[in-house]
Amino acid sequence: MGRLLALSLLGIALALLGERFLALRNRLKASREVESVDLPNCHLIKGIEAGSEDIDILPNGLAFFSVGLKCPGLHSFAPDKPGGILMMDLKEENPRALELRISRGFNLASFNPHGISTFIDSDNTVYLFVVNHPEFKNTVEIFKFEEEENSLLHLKTIKLELLPSVNDIIAVGPAHFYATNDHYFSDPFLKYLETYLNLHWTNVVYYSPNEVKVVAEGFDSANGINISPDKKYIYVADILAHEIHVLEKHPNMNLTQLKVLKLDTLVDNLSIDPSSGDILVGCHPNGQKLFVYDPNNPPSSEVLRIQNILSEKPTVTTVYANNGSVLQGSSVASVYDRKLLIGTLYHRALYCQL
C-alpha cells in the first residue's frame, strides 16, 4: 500500500512538472520564428557592443542608453566590463554615442545598469533614475545630469525590501518613481522556481521620500513601465504573459487596472512617441533563444507600435523585425523626430531614420 501511494505521488509530481514545462515553453514562445520587417536608412551604433537594455530621450533630443547589463545565467558579450550610461544627441546630423562621466565616490566597477528614466524639474534640472544591480543586488540610483560637462552627479542610492528584483522605472518627481519587480524573490534559485511554477507574484512599487508601497500586483513577470503623455495612466509590460496593462493613476499614487492588451510576443520595455502618444514596444519573439544563447541560432528582434491603446480596438503594427542576423534580443525602441533607436538586452543597438 505504501509503495502504491509513493508511486501515485511520484506520478502526480511528474505530471505537474511536465505540465509546467509545457506551459513555460508556451510563455517563452519557444517555437516562434519571426519574418523580417526591414527599415531603410539604418546602421548599428558604434561603441555599443554588449547591450543597450533601455533608452530614454529628453525633449531636446538627448538620448540616454543603459549599457552592459549582466544577470545570472544571461549571455554577455563583455562579461568583465562594467556597465555605463551613454548619450547621443539626435539633433546632430551624424550623432555618436558618448559615455557620460560619473562623479567620484560612485562605485563604477560594480555598475550594472538596467531600466532608466529621466525627469525634468520645474527649474529645468534633469534627473536620471537608474535601476542598478551591483554584484547582482538591487538598487535605484538617482543622478543629476550636467549637460555642459557631459557628466552625471550621483545624488542618492535607494535600496528597499520592496524592490527585491527591480527591473524598470518611471520617474514621476525629482525623488519619486514607480518601479517594477520582475520576480518576487531575489535568490536566483527561487527566481527560477517562481518562473517555472508561474506564481504571478510580481508587482509595481511606488516610492517617494515619505512613502513606499505596492500599488499593483499579480503579474507573471512585470517588466517595462511608462506613463501616458497626460500623466493619467501607467503602462506595465508583463513579459511572460505577453500583455500590456493599462492602470489608472490616482492622486494618492495608487493604481487601478483599466484594461489589458494581449499580444503574441514577449513585451519588454515601453516608450512613448512624443509626437503621437503611441507606445513603442521592444519585444522578444522567442524567449527561449534569448535565455539559452546559441550563436548559430540567435535570438530575434521585434518592435511594435500601439496606437490608441485606450480604445476598444487598439491598432498594433510591426515597425521592425529581424531574425538575429542584424540585431539580437531587442528590448527597447524609442523615437524622436523620425529617428528610431532600438536597443537590445546584450547585443548591439540600431539607429534608423524613418
From TrEMBL:
It is found in: Membrane. Glycans are attached at residues 269, 323. It is a peripheral membrane protein. It comes from the Eukaryota. GO terms for cellular component: extracellular region; membrane. One of its GO terms (biological process) is response to toxic substance. Belongs to the paraoxonase family. This is Paraoxonase. Its cofactor is Ca(2+). Its EC number is 3.1.1.2. The keyword Calcium applies. Capable of hydrolyzing lactones and a number of aromatic carboxylic acid esters. It comes from Lipotes vexillifer. Residues 1-15 form the signal peptide. Disulfide bonds join 42-352.
